[in-house]
Amino acid sequence: MHPLLTAFTCTTLSLSLALGSSVAFAAPAGEGEGAPAEGQPEVSDAARSEGEKLSEEAIAKFQAKDYDGAIELFERAYELDPQPNYLFNIGRVHEEAGNLEAAVKYYAKFVKQPGVDLDSRGVALERLKVLREIVQETGEPDEPEPDASESDDSESDEPQDQLEPAEPPPPVDDGAAKKRKAMRGAGFGLLGVGAAALIAGGVVGGLAQADNNNAGSAATPNESQDLLDSSQTKALAADVMFGVGGALVLTGVILVAVGFKKPKTSERVAFTPTFGPRGAGASLRLRF
Predict the structure, then answer these.
(1) Which CATH superfamily is domain 3-27+41-138 in?
(2) DSSP 3-state helix, strand, coil percentages of the chain (rounded to 5)?
(3) Total H helices, total E strands in the chain
(4) Which of 46, 173, 263, 278 is most buried, taking the most CB atoms under 10 A from its CB?
């Protein structure tokens, strides 16, 4: 505590407490001795007498430097006889004990009480001004919270030892893999059958051409007509074989190509071969 403040406090408090319950800055009484000031509740003589007794005990406690005991007794006296001078004395004791914030609290409460004269309020306000300045000057500032931006910058400056994990590969679709394998097998099979059909068509076409050539050198007209009919039949069979063989080869090529290609997750392949009396074909549908 500041030396001048301590000297002023000791002198004033000693004078105040030495006068007992009627402190040096007490509000003046109303009409008649002991009458309550305007705005103060009615207090019985017994309560007032008990309050004065507690105030005397509080003075003794203060002189013995038992500040906590003095404050407790003054508070009890104020409960019995709520006079503003008890609040002032409590503030004085807190000030002497070094509890400046508590002293400010009681001084501020004192100046707001009804019945306190202007001079007493002026003294209390002066004490409030001094103590508040001391509290403000000696109060320890709160530790600043760490700046989030600074912490982020410090972390970003540190070298990154770990690389970010790569995206996980897509799950393996066993069903799709099996379908592609089956598609490749079917494609190779169709390629073989289609190639055989083309070869057979070529052979039958050659026979049809031979029958047609032999019809011109036939010995009789009937023999020539039979050769022509055979040539037409074999030519038709050759055309069918060429058509079917070509369709099968084309279908096999498509199946093999699609079977080896890894389709996207959203891709759907639908292959439908068609066969009929007039030939064969295939439809391939891709959906995205």
Answers:
(1) Tetratricopeptide repeat domain (1.25.40.10)
(2) 65, 5, 30
(3) 9, 2
(4) 263
Domain range list for the chain: 3-27+41-138, 176-287
Question: d(Cα 16, Cα 63) in Å, to the nearest integer?
Answer: 12
Q: Which amino acid is residue 32, in one-letter code?
A: G
User: CA-to-CA distance for 226 and 221, rounded, in angstroms?
Assistant: 9
Residue type, 277: P
Each residue's pLDDT tens digit, 80-95: 999 899 999 999 999 9
37 sits in the region (left: phi over 0; alpha: psi -120 to 50; else beta) called: beta
Judge residue 164's burial from the number of C-beta atoms within 10 Å of its C-beta, 0-12 exposed, 13-18 middle, 19 or more buried.
exposed
Q: Is 285 helix (H, G, I), strand (E, B) or coil?
A: strand
Strand partners, 279: 276
The answer to whether the predicted template modeling score (pTM) of the entire model surpasses 0.85 is no
Is there a contact between 263 and 195 (Cβ–Cβ < 8 Å)?
Answer: no
Residues 6+ apart with CB under 8 A from 181: 259
Give the count of alpha carbons within 13 A of 86, CB side only: 23
CA 47 to chain centre: 62
Look at the block and give the residue holding tokens 């002026």. Answer: 122
Q: Is 141 helix (H, G, I), strand (E, B) or coil?
A: coil
The single residue listed with the structure tokens 């009484």 is 29
